[in-house]
Q: What sequence folds into this?
């Protein structure tokens, strides 16, 4: 989730940051179930996270 935050904060200004974050997120998705992450956060945080992830075309 921190990589998603870093990706948002970079605002597309740093191509290497965006590329590295997207690669890390893709690797994480292969080895993990997103629902496991949601078990650890509130519904409000989950909704915000999914909104940001959809805007960034991560899921």
A:
């Amino acid at each position: 989730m921190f990589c998603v935050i870093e990706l948002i904060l970079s605002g597309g200004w740093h191509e290497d940051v965006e590329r590295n974050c997207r690669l890390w997120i893709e690797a994480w998705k292969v080895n993990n179930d997103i629902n496991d992450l949601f078990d650890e956060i509130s519904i409000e945080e989950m909704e915000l996270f999914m909104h940001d992830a959809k805007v960034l075309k991560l899921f």
